[in-house]
Amino acid sequence: MEKQFIVAPSPHIHGEYSTQRIMLDVIIAMLPAWAVSIYFFGLGAVLTTLIAVVSCVTFEFLIQKYLIKGPVTILNLSAVVTGMLLAFNVPTNISPLIVVLGSLIAIGVAKMSFGGLGANMFNPALVGRVFLLISFPVQMTSWPLPSLARTEYLDAVTGATPLGVVKEALKAGKPISEIYSSIPSYMDLFLGNMGGSLGEISALALLLGFAYLLIRKVITWHIPVTIVATMILFTGILWGVNPQKYMDPLFHILTGGVLLGAIFMATDYVTSPMTLRGMIYYAVGIALLTVIIRVWGAYPEGVSFAILLMNAVTPLINKYVKPNKFGEVVKHG
Amino acid sequence: MLRTFKLGGIHPPENKLSANKKVETLALPEIAYIPLAQHIGAPATPIVVKGDFVKVGQLIAAASGFVSANIHASVSGTVQGIESIVDTSGYARPSIAIKVEGDEWLDSIDCSNALQEEIRLSASEIISRIAEMGVVGMGGATFPTNIKLAVPTGKKADVLIINGVECEPFLTADDRVMLERGEELLVGIRVLMKSLNVSKAIIGIENNKKEAIAHLSSLAKRYSEISIQPLKVKYPQGGEKQLIKATINREVPSGGLPIDVGAVVQNVGTALAAYEAVQKSKPLIERVVTVTGLTHIDPSNFRVRIGTPISQLIEKVGGLPECKVKVVSGGPMMGKALSTASSPVTKGTSGILIMADDLALRPVKSECIRCAKCVSVCPMGLQPFLLNKMSMRKMYPELEANRITDCIECGSCSYTCPAGIPLLDFIRNGKGNVMQIMRSRKK
Predict the structure, then answer these.
(1) Potential cystine with B254: which of A12, A30, A327, B90 (Cβ 3.0-4.6 Å)?
(2) Which pTM value belongs to this model?
(3) Are the beta carbons of B229 and B201 closer than 8 angstroms?
(4) Which residues from chain B sit within 8 angstroms of residue A8, using beta carbons?
(5) Does the structure's ipTM exceed the value 0.85?
């Protein structure tokens, strides 16, 4: 009966979660948005995503194996997620070289130079996107028109996004009624029939992904719901004050990258706060900055900048916002 | 609506494989090894010598010091001496070895099956009887019960909470006690209530033990002062502080004790032991142990004499498999992995869990992805990722400021961590060091 037992401290069982499984869940949650994108933009959506994913994974592999000479962790699928998110944040008709460069910045600069997964300060895909937006402003803001671009890739017919249309029109002093007639219906906006970055167009598809992430307990509702609620409140006040100058809240939520950012990027574990209360402060910050940039800034869209700015605040939130401890508030029932 | 505690918690697969197995009485061992330290506090002092003949129930080691407990012979036979035996703590510690000869009980013990319902002893007599009979907390913490019942001056208990939660996966010993010994259990609860002078007792039971809830509810109709509180299944609800929060919604202050909010918590097994001690003059010499695991074995519940080698329990359910194996004393969340199966069953042994093959191994560790799952599952509202890091860096003042001493070592953080980081290992280590620093400061 004397036999060598395995001895280790408790606990002796482990839950179903693993980093790889979580990343796989995020990938699964992105599939509806990808499918809608393929429906509206066709070939470009497929190619751009594949290029981004393959180059992100390749860069991570090369850097880990030959530059850092450490363990290669591409199997945890985090580079796949970064690649997909980067692709989701660019127009589908963008040059492959630009996508590869964006991937290099995302993985090489934003992720690996900080020490890899878990150590990065900023969301890698967003750093890649913002780098591209600054470096290639024309290519990054020439959006293929949905449906028309199904079979074309680089030379697809392009147009502006609803947010861009509104920004220009308001600047030109056009009356709000005319603006409304020149943007797609809210049902089209909800389903994804509009110009925009690859993964941001369909609110419906993104919400499906959100539901999946909630069911799988990958994320909690706090960040996405707070971002959307705060944006509705803020833009609602502006709209209420002057509906001739400001767009209504629903328009703000359905256009641009609000839902993509709120569900898939602001919720990035590494760069968001660790406590539920912290997450709410962080989400309010993202929403306020997004509206400020959209309404008063030079860019029609502000979600990426807002998330990156709040990423920088995350360590501070973590330092000052602690969870409610058991036994801190003594209550007699 | 089922009640539960609010903060954190997890729900591991329940695996109550032996829930429907009636408690069988295990055969006596050839030699019983009865450790002198089966409780929290100072080991008992032996009062028998080699060659003495002892009867079942005879005092063989006396409590020494404030926190300690008497130890009685669980078998009858000849004392072989005091031998060093590796116990469930993993350390070799002195045990009284008794060579079993027959099964002769002390005459003072009432061995009949008759339910002894009338409580004759006074409150103080109950407490001293419980001390005399060596009753300790049987949920695993093994704190001497008489000390817990002696409410310090200036404090007052108004409710007794009976812990029938058994939130550890796999374990079913308390469940079986509630089903098979319900009437005695209820008298035991009334005994404890009398000793505390409280007029209310609540038995908290998780909803995965529906039969026990129904059975005790119907039995408790006779006693208006005892109520059954079904609870939502959530680990670690068996933790004292969590159970108090779940049943009566009071929050024990950080660093405080249940009595600070007027509650005393006792385990189901302890209440039964109190019944036997007070009403039957029977010392704590045996207990119910679940033997289980996801292997080829036959998961069962046994009534086992203290001092029986664990190997005897394992043989009884089918022996050990050929593969890699981990044998845990207690549940999978808080139990201790044994280094040898020759360790004896003690007063705190609630279960023996045989884990084979890959289940016996820990997950492969990778980098923290700051998912904060450890924060959301911590039932004490701590930040395990932070405590883990600080413990690694030996940042003791910071650990103290972040309340590492509040950690109840439930293991929810390690269980949940997707990166497979054994958070509790370092936290436990840091907690030990911080507590030592705090003690030396007080001196």
Answers:
(1) A327
(2) 0.91
(3) no
(4) 326, 337, 362
(5) yes
